[in-house]
Structures are given as C-alpha cells and as structure tokens.
Amino acid sequence: MTKKNKSIQKYRNRIGEFAERVGVPVSTVNYYVKQGLIQPETTTPSGYRIFSEDGLRTISAIRELQTEYLPLEDRKSVV
C-alpha cells in the first residue's frame, strides 16, 4: 500500500464514518470518548479526530454488553 493510500485509509475513520461503521450516532461516540472508553488514534491538522480499528472493536464490545443489560460502569471494567 502506498503512502497516499494509507493516508486515505486513515482518514476514512473520521468520527462520522467511524460512527456509521459501528452503527451508532456520532453523539454516542462523543459520549464514549468523554467517558474514557475510547480515544481517537490521532487528530488531523484540521482538527478531525481519527479513530482506529481498535476503537471500532471496543465499541462493538460495549454494544454487545449493552444487550446483556450491563450498566456502563461495569462495561468500563470489561473493556
């Protein structure tokens, strides 16, 4: 993969695209960031937050635990 393709791939995970891939609203991603459950991998020079595939897996795990009716505080300790 060329350097340009890596850059394009990385920018694909801006918060809107990331939220869409995970299947949650942007506000949910922002909430999880504020709760310390996930953090952006990096921030672009223009201020876009870029999220990693690890963040995607973390949110997927949180959502699975949510279906088990596990309170958010307990989900924090699991992920």
Mean pLDDT: 80
Number of strand elements: 2
**Main sheet: strand order:** 1-2
Kindly state the percentage of residues in helix: 55-70%
Q: Mind summarizing the main beta sheet? A: 2 strands, antiparallel
Number of helices: 5
Helix and strand run = HHHEEHH
Please report which band the strand proportion falls in: under 5%, 5-15%, 15-25%, 25-35%, 35-45% or over 45%. 5-15%
Annotation keywords:
2 strands, 79 residues, mainly alpha, elongated, two-stranded antiparallel sheet
Textual characterization of the structure:
The protein is mostly helical. Helix content is 61%, strand content 5%. The protein is built from 5 helices and 2 strands. Strands 1-2 form a two-stranded antiparallel sheet. The protein is elongated.
